[in-house]
Amino acid sequence: MTLKEQFASIYSFALKQLGEGTGKLTRDQLDEVYEAWKREQTDFEESVADIQAGLDDAKAGRVSSIDDVDRRIRQRRGFPPAE
Question: Which of 14, 49, 5 shows the shortest CA–CA distance to 35?
């Protein structure tokens, strides 16, 4: 994301978080909005990385059928086998 895109994203996020209001933010409000925006960006980036890791696993054949997963979870948790 370019610096210009980051500023636009922060501005848009701030408007959503604080509403239109007077357009004036205190230093504390600005810090709060920026920290919330950073958390949201980090969550998004982590989600993208997790999805990519899952796709890479699938391409490499590191997958399990739902039946295998169900069986292992039931065994681990002491649940009876599926009927």
Answer: 14
